Amino acid sequence: MAIQNVDEFLEKGVLETSNREGFLKFLQSFSSFVEGHHLVEDEKVFPYFMDKLPKVPYKGLMDQHKEIEAALQEINNGITGLRTQKDELWSLKLFKSGLGQIDEIWQPHIRIEDSQLYTLVGSLKINSKEMIRLINEVSELFQEHTGPPYLIAPFILYNLSPEDRAIQAKGFPEIVIEQLVPIDWKDKWAPMQPYLLK
Ligand SMILES: [Fe+2]
Question: Is the pTM of this model over 0.70?
Answer without folding.
Answer: yes
